[in-house]
């Protein structure tokens, strides 16, 4: 029994809420509670808010049945909530009517969910013998939807990273307040109402931008502070505030119809803050906070996770075994039981949705003793399903290539390249070399001397993400004029999207979002704390959201605007990359770099007759070159097909070489046309 205020609550019986907080639509949702006799209760009540997940919402009070018994000075009541369909949920508070007819309601509330599709136990996922792959027996769930083969051209595609809650709201479904995550569009740390169906509704927007792969933030049911998806409490269920399993299937299917691959962000390192460890006053070995009476927590799903011995306590302080950020419960991934549980949960999401890859969050905080068998097993399973190039992307935020290369034995298909980001973007802008780091990246000069398992070119490169300051902010902080800063932004986008690695942009890049990481001071302690409010902006209109330094949504354009220069440029760059295999595989040769800022680069290969010629002006003054000679060893050319110029510029062949005209900080690319009459 849990006691609080003038109430008590039966909270440890397996089939009674709130111990069970996910029910099937055909199960009774029972609640038992008591009211202190000192409050003269006449009858018990439940105050509730109902959302059936289909757009119908209701609220009210339900009178409880009086059990006629007294426990420890509390009069006991019970009730069964009215049934609702799968995909819905309740939020409720205990209450009562006293002998004088006055109604009382607890300030504490609980949530309950109804879902027929998600397993509550790993045992509910039927794992069958599928055959032999790589001479080893393979077990796993039979796919519940038709499987789509992997794209054969990952390197040609522009990736796009999405935080579902902040990307797009859905017009035909109101799912706010479903689940534990707080909905408050004015609070930068609460849910703002973005949904999976909202992403589906914007597939054509993404296609028109030139996106051919999206990375979705985690879809797990999350704790109250997990609007972003990284604080899971149920590893096998779609958070109902985001949608349902059917919504996710629909998104994947619609994306595939548009030739957009879908990569799902998954969390194998941790679950949300759930355990009171001995170090903090809990019992030996720790105990789940819910069992100790903490009504802000729940017991995690699947039920196999309800054992504190599966997690590392605060006594672990190394990179791999410590609790992430000091409060997220860290799985003991070194144990075979945890490995099997987490690998099987990954197979579940593939079999249920037909996704094309995983982004593995916090990869450096999980050891190779997990990643090696995990990546190998997922590769075998997806090969069996016909997804032979299923992506397994590691989000390893190490600052040096050596840190990432140390994970080569895991054999990830791709790694998010933080070291190259730091060198090409963060450090180069900080030391006033401006665009030099981006030009170095474009030329391939930043590739490390030691090899990645899948090769440096298969790494994912970015200019910004949900954990970094926006690249446009970096330019605007140095160049107050938005038009002038846009010139730098376009140069950076050209270097990224036409660069040697797989390019990825973050939602809002195309709409010139310009937020920055910041610091704020706690009023109670004076402690300075970092915040990410201005890099988690809503793509949709939400003027209510403010932070202590001002509004979050300070947009340059109307949401999802397709008719401004940056959107159009990304669209053009994405198409050039997709249509020119030479960009992904060709050799990049720096033909010249002049003191006036002119760089000329050739992308060439024996397999392609028409090399690509690039001219860049990294200087603040216009460049006029009368005749830049292309060495004869690359062939002789009769003309040039200009493909793109970012901010005014051109070049064309003349007798003796290339005539070039470039505005400051301009990037121009063209295809050289070979003279067929000459050998």
TrEMBL record:
<dbReference type="GO" id="GO:0005975">
    <property type="term" value="P:carbohydrate metabolic process"/>
</dbReference>
<dbReference type="InterPro" id="IPR006047">
    <property type="entry name" value="GH13_cat_dom"/>
</dbReference>
<keyword id="KW-0479">Metal-binding</keyword>
<keyword id="KW-0732">Signal</keyword>
<dbReference type="GO" id="GO:0046872">
    <property type="term" value="F:metal ion binding"/>
</dbReference>
<dbReference type="InterPro" id="IPR017853">
    <property type="entry name" value="GH"/>
</dbReference>
<feature type="domain" description="Glycosyl hydrolase family 13 catalytic">
    <location>
        <begin position="161"/>
        <end position="577"/>
    </location>
</feature>
<dbReference type="Pfam" id="PF00128">
    <property type="entry name" value="Alpha-amylase"/>
</dbReference>
<protein>
    <submittedName>
        <fullName>Alpha-amylase</fullName>
    </submittedName>
</protein>
């Amino acid at each position: 029994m849990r006691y609080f205020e003038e109430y008590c609550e039966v909270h440890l019986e397996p089939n009674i809420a709130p111990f069970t907080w996910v029910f099937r639509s055909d199960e009774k949702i029972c609640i038992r509670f008591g009211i202190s006799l000192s409050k003269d209760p006449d009858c018990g009540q439940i105050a509730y808010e109902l959302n059936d997940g289909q757009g119908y919402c209701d609220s009210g009070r339900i009178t409880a049945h009086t059990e006629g018994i007294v426990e420890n000075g509390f009069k006991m009541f019970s009730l069964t909530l009215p049934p609702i369909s799968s995909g819905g949920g309740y939020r409720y508070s205990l209450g009562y009517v006293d002998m004088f007819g006055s109604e009382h309601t607890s300030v504490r509330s609980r949530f309950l969910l109804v879902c027929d599709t998600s397993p509550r136990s790993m045992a509910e996922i039927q794992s069958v013998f599928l055959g032999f792959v790589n001479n080893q027996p393979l077990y796993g769930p039979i796919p519940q939807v038709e499987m789509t083969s992997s794209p054969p051209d990952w390197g040609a595609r522009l990736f796009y990273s999405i935080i579902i809650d902040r990307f797009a709201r859905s017009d035909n479904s109101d799912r706010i307040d479903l689940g534990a995550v707080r909905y408050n569009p004015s609070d930068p740390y609460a849910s703002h109402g973005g949904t999976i169906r909202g992403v589906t509704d914007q597939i054509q927007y993404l296609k028109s931008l030139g996106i051919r792969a999206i990375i979705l933030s985690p879809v797990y049911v999350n704790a109250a502070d997990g609007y972003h998806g990284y604080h899971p409490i149920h590893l096998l269920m779609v958070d109902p505030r985001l949608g349902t399993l059917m919504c996710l299937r629909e998104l994947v299917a619609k994306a595939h119809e548009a030739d957009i691959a879908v990569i799902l962000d998954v969390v194998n390192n941790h679950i949300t803050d759930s355990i009171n460890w001995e170090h903090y006053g809990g019992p030996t070995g720790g105990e789940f906070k819910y069992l100790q009476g903490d009504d802000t927590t729940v017991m995690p799903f699947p039920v196999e996770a309800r054992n504190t011995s599966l997690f590392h306590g605060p006594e672990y302080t190394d990179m791999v075994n410590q609790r992430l950020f000091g409060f997220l419960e860290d799985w003991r991934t070194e144990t075979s039981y945890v490995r099997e549980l987490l690998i099987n949960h990954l197979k579940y999401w593939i079999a249920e949705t037909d996704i094309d890859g995983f982004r593995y969050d916090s990869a450096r905080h999980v050891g190779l003793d997990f990643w090696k068998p995990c990546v190998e097993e997922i590769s075998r399973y997806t090969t069996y399903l016909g997804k032979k190039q299923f992506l397994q992307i590691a989000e390893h935020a190490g600052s040096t290539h050596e840190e990432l290369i140390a994970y080569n034995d895991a054999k990830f298909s791709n790694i998010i390249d933080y070291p190259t980001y730091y060198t090409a973007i963060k450090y180069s802008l900080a030391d006033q070399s401006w665009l030099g780091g981006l030009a170095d990246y474009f030329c391939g000069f930043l590739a490390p001397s030691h090899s990645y398992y899948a090769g440096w070119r298969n790494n994912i490169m970015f200019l910004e993400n949900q954990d970094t300051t926006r690249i446009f902010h970096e330019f605007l902080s140095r160049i107050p004029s938005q038009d002038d800063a846009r010139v730098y932004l376009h140069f950076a986008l050209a270097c990224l999207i036409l660069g040697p690695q797989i390019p990825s942009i973050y939602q809002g890049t195309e709409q010139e979002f310009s937020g920055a990481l910041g610091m704020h001071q706690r009023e109670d302690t004076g402690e300075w704390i970092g915040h990410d409010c201005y890099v988690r902006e809503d793509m949709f209109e939400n003027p209510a959201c403010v932070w202590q330094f001002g509004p979050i949504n300070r947009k340059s354009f109307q949401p999802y605007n397709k008719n401004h220069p940056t959107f159009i440029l990304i669209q053009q760059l994405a198409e050039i990359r997709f249509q020119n295999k030479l960009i992904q595989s060709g050799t990049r040769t720096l033909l010249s770099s002049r003191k006036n800022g002119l760089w000329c680069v050739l992308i060439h290969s024996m397999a392609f007759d028409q090399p690509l010629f690039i001219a860049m002006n990294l200087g603040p003054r216009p460049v006029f070159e009368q005749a830049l000679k292309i060495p004869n060893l690359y062939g002789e050319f009769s003309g040039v097909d200009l493909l793109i110029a970012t901010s005014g510029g051109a070049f064309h062949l003349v007798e003796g070489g290339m005539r070039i005209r470039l505005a400051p900080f301009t990037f121009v690319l063209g295809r050289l046309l070979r003279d067929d009459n000459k050998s």
